Amino acid sequence: MANVVIVGAQWGDEGKGKVVDIYTENANAVVRYQGGNNAGHTLVVGDEKTVLHLIPSGILHKGKRCIIGNGVVLDPKVFIEEIEGLKKKGYMTDDSQLIIDRNVHIIMPYHKKIDIARENKPGERRIGTTGRGIGPTYEDKVGRRGIRLSDLINPTVFAMKVKEFLPEKNFLLENFLKDSPLTEEEILEEYNAYGEILKKYVGNASLLLDDCRKQGQNILFEGAQGSLLDVDHGTYPYVTSSSTCAGGAAIGSGFGPRFINEVIGISKAYVTRVGEGPFPTELHDEMGETLRKAGSEFGATTGRPRRTGWFDAVALREAVRTNGLTGLAITKLDVLDGLDSIKVCTAYSYQGELLEEFPQDANVLKECKPVYEEIEGWKCALSAVTSYEEFPDKVKNYLNKLEEITGCPVVLASVGPRRDQTIQLRNPFAG
């Protein structure tokens, strides 16, 4: 029995969906524990691509329990559309496969309007949000003004809460954000219909997971976004609104932290970032565009082009420490095929000082310049490689260098989007 947490070790978009899909083979239950539909996990089975935003990536495997934990914020419209899309493809033939914790907070129409209006307000500092209402929903959760799934499926309670909270939201929309107000009637008509559909999925994630543990089953925890976007440990304020680090798995699911056995960090062989915020190794030249095109670096949720840069070991060491990583999964190695040389950032230069640790102040980080070590490229295609032994020595050298400068062993390497383009060096479920 093993309980494994998957986290993004960079700024998100590292390929967590594929790794979760691979590891689900060994798991009995898969849990999504934070974030909302600002996440997009892309899975490729055969030649078919599936993009998930809320439902755990393990849903493509029959017989696996997929659980949405209390730490997630849920847009019911998006969730229902996602279920319909999966069923059209022949997945989720058994509705009991999916459980949503009753304490999940619901993204309301005013959350989305506020999110978009704030980003578009003249003179405001842009954070680069997806405009999905994630941040405002978490604000209301912490401010004790949130509406949970247990409220949504009770029409009387839901109507009472909408009546209580809507006047304040409309005041903000009209008087500060200069946007149009919402009416109780339109919200209730739309959301009561969602509540009726969602009733059959409601459960107690914490209790269910503890039962799985007591039965000796394997549990896989699926994180969204990346460690450097953590609301506490990321590049604040250019972060998401939830705890993306491994500690969030326990909080966002009601699972005891002492029962977690492994934490695997997912990292690209280079780095990308979406939205605003400091990014020391960002490339603004032809090489940056080469990585973007070769890696198809466009957001699965927004379609926005991602910013690209060389691998940043300083940032990765931060993720190793804050998550307690026991292994690294390196994705998109094949994107570096054909390059004469590859750069890896091993330290930062800041006002004449050499920094080997990640600055806690985003204002300092944006002034940091990368200090690179150059590694010889392998100049051949990796997409057909099926084992570590088949890797050219120069690829092995690159992976060894990443292990050496991050202090964390590589346990998986991906050379393409398909399941069969994955090389496992160690299975975290095997002990």
TrEMBL record:
SUPFAM superfamilies, A to Z: P-loop containing nucleoside triphosphate hydrolases
Cofactor details (free text): Binds 1 Mg(2+) ion per subunit.
Reported cofactor(s): Mg(2+)
GO biological process per UniProt: 'de novo' AMP biosynthetic process; IMP metabolic process
Alphabetical list of Pfam families matching this protein: Adenylsucc_synt
Pathway: Purine metabolism; AMP biosynthesis via de novo pathway; AMP from IMP: step 1/2
Binding site for GTP: 12-18, 40-42, 306, 332-334, 414-416
Residues at which IMP binds: D13, E14, G15, K16, N38, A39, G40, H41, T130, R144, Q225, T240, R304
Keywords: Cytoplasm, GTP-binding, Ligase, Magnesium, Metal-binding, Nucleotide-binding, Purine biosynthesis
EC assignment: 6.3.4.4
Active site: D13, H41, K141
Cellular component aspect of the GO annotation: cytoplasm
Catalytic activity: IMP + L-aspartate + GTP = N(6)-(1,2-dicarboxyethyl)-AMP + GDP + phosphate + 2 H(+)
Subunit: Homodimer.
Alphabetized HAMAP family for the sequence: Adenylosucc_synth
Family assignment from sequence similarity: Belongs to the adenylosuccinate synthetase family.
PANTHER family: ADENYLOSUCCINATE SYNTHETASE (PTHR11846)
Protein's UniProt name: Adenylosuccinate synthetase
Organism: Desulfuromonas acetoxidans (strain DSM 684 / 11070)
Gene: purA
